[in-house]
Design a protein that fits this description.
Elements lengths: L1 H9 L2 H44 L5 H13 L8 H14 L3 H7 L4 H10 L3 H14 L3 H9 L2 H4 L4 E2 L1 H4 L2 H10 L4 E2 L11 H10 L1 H8 L3 E12 L2 E11 L4 E11 L2 H17 L9 E8 L2 H8 L6 E7 L7 H12 L3
Parallel strand pairs: 2-7, 5-6, 6-7
Antiparallel strand pairs: 1-7, 3-4, 4-5
């Protein structure tokens, strides 16, 4: 018997085991997805029925309270039939009933994700943005909440760059959307930092949150990354590789307002990485300058004759507070009756 076991192990047993484990995991994922889609379809159906009956029968709020009570009596061990959740189902149907594209997207996300977007986002274009990103990148609910609260929709793709001129058309839009302006470093819990080194120290200590703010695909290579050019030593603040863009990303920190010479320095580092680190199959290295503030016109002038792809963004050490009008809208939304 022992000899037979050894014989099996000496064959392609590990490959067989790996394949079966992979199949089981895939099957479990598919089961979860199927259950989730069925749940979303159920909630959609309930929301639709409530809306239709309120129109046809002129029912008021009482139908939701009564439905909740009766459904919980019928299904005492089931969750999701509270009056509040039934109101969400109604709101869910009303929001997406006339948009087939969004209907397809909401079916790909758990109900908890949908509730976050339903409660926090009113604009349909912004809703579509977060739905697509959450589906595409498999965001957890906490990551989704983070991106909504940091206003990713309004920051995505807003970095001032020369990508249109320095990258192939097929790549420039994708790369542009990878960078944002401003970057929010509220997780550092500081009001102001006047030294780049101290800012760099804090970002590296909080590398997980830093990577989350940078976005999908970034892998940290190192800080103060050494390069030698003509027997002189130079040190890049932060070096990353983006596995989706297939390129190195050089990040330089400036705890002050943007100055034109910063672009020249970053251009030098990008050139050095291209010549010394870039391998066959890698796309051109990209430079990102993060500064405390900037004059957009001066930035545009500074990048106009640089032939390496470079972006310039501001960073903020605390969340951007909503305007008075935005606060009024938030309060009004919360006070609305379903």
């Amino acid at each position: 018997m022992l000899n037979k076991i050894k014989e099996i192990k000496n064959q392609n047993y590990n490959d067989i085991l790996h394949d079966i484990i992979s199949d089981i995991k895939t099957a479990k994922v598919n089961v979860v997805r199927t259950v989730n889609k069925n749940l979303i379809l159920l909630y959609w159906s309930i929301g639709k029925r409530i809306v239709e009956e309120q129109i046809v029968q002129n029912y008021g709020k009482s139908i939701v309270e009564k439905l909740s009570k009766d459904l919980r009596m019928e299904f005492p061990n089931a969750k999701g039939f509270s009056a509040q959740n039934l109101w969400y189902m109604r709101q869910f149907y009303l929001k997406y009933s006339k948009n087939t594209i969004l209907q397809q997207l909401v079916g790909e996300l758990p109900w908890g994700h949908n509730l976050v977007i339903l409660n926090k986002i009113k604009d349909l274009k912004e809703t579509e943005f977060y739905l697509k990103k959450a589906v595409q990148f498999g965001w957890s609910r906490s990551v989704l909440v983070h991106h909504i609260e940091s206003d990713l929709y309004k920051r995505q793709g807003k970095s001032i760059t020369n990508f249109k001129k320095t990258l192939p058309d097929i790549n420039s839009d994708l790369v542009q959307q990878t960078f944002k302006d401003p970057y929010i470093f509220d997780f550092l819990n500081i009001q102001e930092e006047k030294k780049e080194k101290n800012l760099e120290d804090k970002l590296v200590k909080n590398i997980t949150k830093f990577l989350l703010e940078l976005g999908t695909g970034f892998s940290f290579i190192g800080r103060q990354y050494h390069i030698a050019v003509s027997k002189k030593d130079f040190y890049i603040d932060l070096l990353f590789y983006n596995i989706e863009l297939h390129c190195y990303v050089v990040i330089e920190l400036k705890a002050c307002e943007f100055e034109p010479e910063f672009a020249g320095q970053l251009n030098f580092y990008v050139t050095a990485v291209d010549r010394q680190l870039k391998k066959q199959g890698d796309n051109p290295t990209i430079g990102l300058l993060l500064c405390r503030s900037k004059d957009n016109i001066i930035v545009e002038y500074s990048l106009s004759d640089i032939h390496k792809p470079i972006g310039v963004s501001e960073y903020k050490l605390k969340k951007i507070m909503p305007t008075k009008k935005q606060l009024e809208n938030i309060i009004n939304d919360k006070n609305k009756n379903f």
